[in-house]
Amino acid sequence: MARSATAKPAKAAAIPATKPTKVAKATSSRAAKASVAEKEPKAKRGKKKAKTGPKRALSAYMFFSKAMRKTVQEENPEVSFGQIGKILGDKWKNLSDAAKAPYNAESEKDKIRYANEKASHVDVSEQSE
DNA sequence: GAATTGATTGTTGGG
DNA sequence: CCCAACAATCAATTC
Fold this sequence. Notes:
There is one protein chain. The protein has a domain at 54-120: DNA Binding (I), subunit A (Orthogonal Bundle). The longest helix is centred in the last third of the chain and has 24 residues, at 97-120. It is mainly alpha-helical. Helices cover 48% and strands 0% of the residues. The radius of gyration is 18 Å and the shape is globular. This is Non-histone chromosomal protein 6. Pfam families: HMG_box. Keywords: DNA-binding, Nucleus. Residues 54-122 bind DNA. GO terms for molecular function: DNA binding.
């Protein structure tokens, strides 16, 4: 186990709109991390584990990027991927909790979806390969 | 048990 | 085929 504290913060973190408490040092993990953090952005995303199992739940930003990406491109037709990301991120942060609500909702749904697949574990039919 | 690090998710376009 | 910034978020590892 890990962050048992993350058990279920009454959707505080998942739904800031309902409760913009922002976890606020839920476990001081984020705070401390924020303090440390700021290391050099080492693009070390060379995949490690996670075989072909159930894909993890997407984050609100994932859905946001999917939706806004196109829009941002239209407003910025001559921007590269990196720029889009920066713009999207900027907008994302600029978005209000209410605006994030729908995205969070999607992420939540995905979370459940992921949990469901994970829960599937081994049922009757499954085991594709 | 709490904190931290790490890996994963999605986008597009290119090397 | 993998990575690039962006943000989130879980998940296992570690202490």
